[in-house]
């Protein structure tokens, strides 16, 4: 099976503090992979490193087998491989630009004719259940759920091989959470993308992840098939997380 | 498809600019600045000589011949205040625009790119701010002499760090915002990120600061003129007019009232307009502007 994200011996720190220590992880392509752990365990830092937003002290991160540098050309190459869905998608949409302008930027980055991009955009909006009128609105004029979908639409326009979602259900009510997770699962199947979910919400991972890695203090303490990990947790921290789940979910 | 493209363009619509008039503060600001501009142009329209001395008419009260009265040398105050206002507004706009532009460019670059550039820029801003304005003025005048050119350079050096620091702080805060990171991860060109996504989010506070600084520059120029370092006689400035009027206050208060009233109108007008511009440039506060109308 192809590896979508390959993390080998990565260490990340801020000043004297080591946040992630010698971490290795393989995310198989075309699967839904969940990374769980409590706040401060280093999940988001790991995601930021995979996206190229965070320097690593040691080790390497490969996406679809390739390493990427920091130049604009390399960033554009990486943008076609991985796209993020931020924890607060409304904050990920530039506040002084209409949604349509933000979508048009993708055409410029890809060098794709605007008409062709618009046709793809129409299809994506339809699939995500967004009205076309949303293109004329500013981010603050749409609901949180619509902003989340608009951010996903923009990410999908790049035709990425990997979608990396940081706490995708944070701040959503239960029914919208379910809709969003179903949507992400459907996208993974139909677009054959890899879905990397970073969350502290065990219910989310249990619902949609094929495989799961449990993080504690910057290390992976356990990983495997999601069903197996949830049914027979091997590490004490995983058991502790599962035991605390009914109280926190 | 063209219609759709027009629909989603991000250019400011005329309707957005009409909101200045719909807003109460905007209307007042426009009204005050309109009066100041009218006064500035009145001297040119009436064709009166601001430097024509007429001793028998000294310190005359307002009349049909001299709408705002005369000063201690019998010079027409309408013409002198008009010339002083033109000079003050021109200098203030030039200095504020140059300081804001240079400060925005330098501060944004320092805030976004950081490291050695930020260190150097911060050190220069700190050094400039550490000098008391008058000491800097004396130094520059000693080096380059008095005159408008020296005053413009001096004022830009004094006001630039304010704009630069504000732009730097805003750029630093925006640099790690999710929407800027999302643009970077999309591969959008850094220049487009700066022009489309960073500067519009910095512009609001800079415009307000610029508006607030216009009267400060006018009074700064007046202060330096008072010390003989700014506008040189016989040219008039609002500062010298207030000073001259103050000396003869016991004989006539018209010279002081005219110049000080103009300064007050310019101060209030530019401040109110600046605040309205800030609200209009921020789409989030558009509803607030309409609510105040």
Question: How is this structure best described in words?
Answer:
The complex is a heterodimer of chains A (249) and B (293). Chain A starts with a strand and ends with a helix. Chain A has 249 residues and is α/β, with parallel strands linked by helices. Chain A is built from 9 helices and 9 strands. In chain A, the strands form 2 sheets. A 6-stranded mixed beta sheet of chain A has the order 5-6-7-3-8-9, with helices on both faces. In chain A, helix 3 crosses helix 4 and helix 4 crosses helix 5. With 293 residues, chain B is an all-alpha fold. Chain B has a single domain, classed as MetI-like fold, CATH 1.10.3720.10. Chain B is 76% helix and 0% strand. Chain B has 12 helices and no strands. In chain B, helix 6 crosses helix 7 and helix 9 runs antiparallel to helix 11. The longest helix of chain B has 37 residues. The N terminus of chain B is likely disordered. Chains A and B meet through helix 2, helix 3 and helix 4 of A and helix 1, helix 8 and helix 9 of B.
Enter the CATH topology name of chain B.
Answer: MetI-like fold
- Please compute the radius of gyration of chain A using only Cα atoms: 18 Å
The CATH C-level class name of chain B? Mainly Alpha
Helix content of chain A: 40-55%
How would you name the CATH homologous superfamily of chain B? MetI-like
CA radius of gyration of chain B: 23 Å
Q: Low-confidence spans of chain A: pLDDT under 50, at least 5 residues?
A: none
Q: What is the global morphology of chain B?
A: flat
The number of helical segments of chain A is 9
Q: Residue-averaged pLDDT of chain B, rounded?
A: 83
């Amino acid at each position: 099976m192809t590896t979508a994200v390959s993390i080998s011996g990565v260490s990340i720190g801020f000043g004297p503090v080591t946040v992630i220590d010698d971490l290795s992880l393989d995310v198989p392509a075309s699967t839904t992979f969940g990374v769980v752990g409590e706040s401060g365990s280093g999940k988001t830092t790991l995601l930021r490193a995979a996206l190229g937003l965070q320097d690593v002290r040691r080790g390497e991160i490969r996406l679809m087998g390739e390493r990427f540098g920091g130049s604009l050309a390399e960033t554009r190459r990486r943008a076609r491989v991985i796209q993020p869905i931020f924890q607060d998608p409304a904050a990920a949409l530039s506040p002084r630009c209409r949604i349509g302008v933000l979508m048009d930027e993708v055409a410029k980055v890809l060098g794709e004719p605007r008409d062709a991009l618009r046709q793809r955009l129409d299809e994506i909006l339809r699939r995500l259940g967004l009205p076309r009128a949303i293109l004329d609105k500013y981010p603050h004029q749409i609901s949180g759920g619509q902003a989340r979908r608009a951010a996903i639409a923009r990410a999908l326009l790049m035709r990425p091989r990997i979608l990396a979602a940081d706490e995708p259900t944070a701040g959503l009510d239960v029914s919208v959470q379910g809709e969003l997770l179903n949507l992400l699962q459907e996208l993974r199947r139909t677009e054959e993308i890899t879905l990397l979910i970073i969350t502290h919400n065990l219910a989310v991972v249990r619902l949609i992840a094929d495989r799961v890695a449990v993080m504690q203090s910057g290390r992976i303490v356990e990983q495997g098939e999601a069903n197996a990990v949830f049914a027979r947790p091997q590490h004490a921290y995983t058991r502790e997380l599962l035991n605390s789940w009914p109280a926190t979910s | 498809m063209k219609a759709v493209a027009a629909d989603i363009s991000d250019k400011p619509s005329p309707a957005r600019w009409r909101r200045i008039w719909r807003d109460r503060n905007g209307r007042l600001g426009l009204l005050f600045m309109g009066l100041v501009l009218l006064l500035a142009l009145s001297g040119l329209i009436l064709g009166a000589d601001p430097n024509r001395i007429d001793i028998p008419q000294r310190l005359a009260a307002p009349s049909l011949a001299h709408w705002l009265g005369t000063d201690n040398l019998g010079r027409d105050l309408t013409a002198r205040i008009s010339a002083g206002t033109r000079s003050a507004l021109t200098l203030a706009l030039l200095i504020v625009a140059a300081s804001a532009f240079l400060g925005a460019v330098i501060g944004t670059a320092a805030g976004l790119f950081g490291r050695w550039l930020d260190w150097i820029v911060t050190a220069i801003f700190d050094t400039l701010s550490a000098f008391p304005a008058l000491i800097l003025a004396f130094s520059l005048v000693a080096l380059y002499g008095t005159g408008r050119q020296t005053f413009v350079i001096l004022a830009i050096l004094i006001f630039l760090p304010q704009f630069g620091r504000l732009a730097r702080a805003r750029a630093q805060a925006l640099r790690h915002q999710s929407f800027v990171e999302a643009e970077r991860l999309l591969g959008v060109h850094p220049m487009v990120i700066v022009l489309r996504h960073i500067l519009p989010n910095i512009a609001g506070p800079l415009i307000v600061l610029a508006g607030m600084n216009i009267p400060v520059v006018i009074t700064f120029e007046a202060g330096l003129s008072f010390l003989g370092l700014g506008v040189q006689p016989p040219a008039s400035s609002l500062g010298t007019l207030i000073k001259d009027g103050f000396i003869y206050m016991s004989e006539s208060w018209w010279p002081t009232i005219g110049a000080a009233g103009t300064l007050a109108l310019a101060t209030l007008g530019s401040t109110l307009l600046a605040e309205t511009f800030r609200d209009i440039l921020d789409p989030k506060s558009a509803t607030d502007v309409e609510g105040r109308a």
